[in-house]
Design goal:
- This protein has 486 residues and is an alpha/beta fold.
- It has three domains: 96 residues, 3-Layer(aba) Sandwich (Udp-n-acetylmuramoylalanyl-d-glutamate--2,6- Diaminopimelate Ligase, Chain: A, domain 1), CATH 3.40.1390; 222 residues, UDP-N-acetylmuramoyl-L-alanine:D-glutamate ligase (3-Layer(aba) Sandwich); 153 residues, Alpha-Beta Complex (Protein-Tyrosine Phosphatase, Chain A), CATH 3.90.190.20.
- 32% of the residues lie in helices and 24% in strands.
- Helix 11 packs parallel to helix 12 and helix 12 crosses helix 13.
- It binds ligand UAG, adenosine-5'-triphosphate, 2,6-diaminopimelic acid and magnesium ion (MG).
- The site of 2,6-diaminopimelic acid (API) has 10 residues, from loops.
Length: 486
């Protein structure tokens, strides 16, 4: 049982109306989810203003309201708290409502444009393999020590987030590894959490639709490190040109990892093949199942974090060498006729370039590389021509297609991508709106030994068109096609 006064700890509010210390049944920020006894937090959003729903929340049973501006008429029987920023307040009260679960386990956050899911998932798999009880919050799925809970966001909203952390604590988890998206930082979804450490992977072009400028995007990532406590670690990829920036104002212990520069944790790629990576880490040579030089960074980040969490070096390297990471990341299958298919979640220009250059470095010689790629609707439009350009530059043939057009016209998204196709490559590019047909065409074009890359959807099991998520799975489509190949 929680009273309003219990959940206001650490909340800076400027005004309080109605002094009754009421019992609170739930913390809610969506009026449609209000139940009797709720504390309703009115948040200004990108589409609407939660303040416009205060009346509705009260009608449906809210007994207390947190807001930035008091509504014209305030109900006497309801407590009103004025705050400077409701989104910040939401994080704090959500954490208090669940008794600050983040402080009861070791919470490690991973941020960066690419690699968050891979690093968080590897850490989760590694620590479980070493015998710890763990939780995972990721784009692919959330997990409470093996129990899968579907995920809708890379980083959940503050209420869901603290609820999941609470469940982890109740299940006896020692660690939680979570992705921290730039949206989550900007929207204060992680406010009120206590992190044992933060990891930065890299920063490249994405989400400029939301953040508007690269500077703002950078600031959002950096704010995560600025907020870490002096007891936490801040681990950065010092090879990334913004790696140092992340550490500029943090109070946490500053640590770095790198393949090229001087760093606290240094790695070197000795072999890079379809079968895996041979790395030298801390003077040990170890084979890993993960493929691609970008995964050398991810593995190094995981190793460094494990060291900072006081784990045994030999145990960590032995366990890490067996792991294969998150679903739908450089997942490859070979058809009976020896065509190679790779399903990957590359959905930024940098990730597309990384995955294609990895393929380029480990291919044997004359095989064709055929890339099937689309760009998401209602997402950063400026990355569309760039992703198409990169795909064309690094592939022999490219099929431009759909990847979650959402509310947009899929043909228009493809037209935006076509703007980036270099003139010399026009004859090697086809546009096929239907993704299934695009995959079929790639398979028909492929000769034995050729490599097909299906980029952008990775683990996703749907194609989102006009608000409806239709079942669609790149891997399933690929395997179906491969079955039919002789
Ligand atoms: C652009 C964006 O990030 N939007 C997120 C944001 O919603 P919003 O600001 O648009 O909310 P809004 O619709 O304007 O509503 C404002 C407020 O009014 C309330 N409301 C609204 C209607 C109503 O009837 N009653 C009511 O009380 C809403 O609950 C909300 O509190 O806050 C919501 C609650 O936390 C999120 O669910 C929502 O995610 C949307 C669905 C989304 O697609 N987000 C993506 C872009 C996202 O967050 N992605 C990142 C990962 C990106 C990456 O890959 O790196 C992620 O962490 O998942
Ligand atoms: N360290 C890395 N550097 C660059 N590219 C990477 C790295 N790790 C993974 N990638 C590429 O980015 C894709 C997405 O990787 P992952 O899912 O781990 O990133 P993410 O940061 O979680 O993405 P999201 O923002 O969508 O949650 C992979 O499929 C791969 O192509
Ligand atoms: N989580 C990210 C990646 C989505 C990847 C791609 N499949 C798309 O739909 O654009 C987002 O929501 O922007
Ligand atoms: Mg992710």
């Amino acid at each position: 049982m929680k009273y309003l006064s219990d959940i206001l700890t650490g909340l800076p509010f400027t005004e309080l109306q109605g002094a009754a210390d009421v019992e609170i049944s739930a913390v809610v920020f969506d009026s449609r989810k209000v139940v009797p006894g709720s504390l309703f937090v009115a948040v200004k959003g990108t589409q609407v203003d939660g303040h416009d729903y205060i009346e509705k929340a009260i009608q449906d049973g809210a007994v207390a309201v947190i807001c930035e501006e008091l509504p014209g008429r305030t109900a006497n029987e309801v407590d009103f708290l004025m705050v400077a920023n409701s989104a910040v307040a939401l994080g704090i009260v959500a954490a208090n409502f669940y008794d600050n679960p983040s402080a009861k386990l070791k919470l490690v956050g991973v941020t960066g444009t690419n690699g968050k899911t891979t690093i968080a998932t590897l850490l989760y798999q590694l620590f479980r393999d070493m015998g710890y009880k763990c939780g995972l919050l990721s784009t692919v799925e959330n997990q409470v020590n093996g129990k899968v809970i579907p995920s809708t966001h890379t980083t959940p909203d503050p209420v869901e987030l603290n609820k999941l952390l609470d469940e982890m604590v109740n299940q006896g988890c020692d660690y939680c590894f979570m992705e921290v998206s730039s949206h989550a930082v900007a929207q204060h979804r992680i406010e009120g959490l206590r992190f044992a450490g933060g990891i930065f992977s890299n920063l490249t072009h994405d989400h400029l639709d939301y953040h508007k400028t690269f500077e703002n995007y950078l600031k959002a990532k950096k704010a995560f490190f600025d907020g870490l406590s002096k007891n936490a670690f801040a681990l950065t990829n010092i090879d990334d040109k913004n790696g140092n920036v992340m550490l500029q104002n943090t109070k946490a212990h500053k640590k770095s990892y790198a393949l090229k520069s001087m760093a606290d944790y240094k790695g070197k790629i000795l072999e890079n093949q379809f079968g895996g990576l041979l790395l030298r880490i801390d003077n040990e040579e170890v084979w890993f199942k993960m493929v691609g030089s970008f995964n050398a960074y991810n593995l190094l980040a995981v190793y460094a974090a494990a060291m900072l969490l006081d784990q045994d070096k030999a145990k960590v390297l032995t366990s890490l060498s067996k792991l294969s990471g998150a679903e739908g990341r450089f997942d490859y299958v070979v058809a009976p006729n020896k065509v190679i298919g790779i399903v990957d979640y590359a959905h930024t220009p940098d990730a597309v370039q990384n995955v294609l250059s990895t393929i380029h470095n480990i291919r044997k010689g004359n095989e064709q590389v055929i890339t099937v790629i689309g760009c998401g609707g209602d997402r950063d439009k400026t990355k569309r021509p760039v992703m198409a350009k990169v795909a064309c530059e690094w592939s022999d043939k490219v099929i431009l297609t759909s990847d979650n057009p959402r509310s947009e016209d899929p043909l228009q998204i493809i037209r935006d991508m076509e703007e980036g196709v270099p003139v010399m490559k026009k004859f090697n590019v086809a546009s096929i709106v239907d993704r299934r047909e695009a995959i079929q065409t790639a398979c028909k074009l492929a000769q034995p030994g050729d490599i097909i890359l299906l980029a952008g959807k990775g683990h996703e099991k749907y194609q989102e068109i006009k608000g409806v998520k239709n079942h669609f799975d790149d891997k399933e489509e690929l395997l179906n096609q491969f079955k039919q190949m002789g």
